[in-house]
Target: DUF423 domain-containing protein
Amino acid sequence: MKDYVLLIAALYGALGIIFGAFGAHALKKIFSEDLLKSFETGVKYQLYHAIVLLIIGFQFSFTETLQTAVAWCFIIGIFLFSFSIYGFCISSAKGKKLRFLGPITPLGGLLLVIGWILLGVSFF
Model:
């Protein structure tokens, strides 16, 4: 699990930089200011949580179920939260808003919150 978490952390980190640059340059021309802010929020949360995944990947032994649950909450939460924002923003800018992505974003956010709570619990 440790290697998997570290690999995903690196992948999310690299993609966060790529998406951030893409948003700042290419999408700036086609996004409204509100869409650009939403896209940037997705990038920020992705990068913040990629760093957290990297840290727990190095610190956790993953011998306890709780540690594995923390990692999965962050991995799935990042994907659902950030990537649903990217999809929603891009589809909105193209005039084909993917409305089904709307409820996915808070679900991803909830998993991130649960991941943080479980991380706190893991310290005890």
Summary: The chain is about 80% helix and 0% strand. Residues 2-122 form one domain. The mean pLDDT is 94.
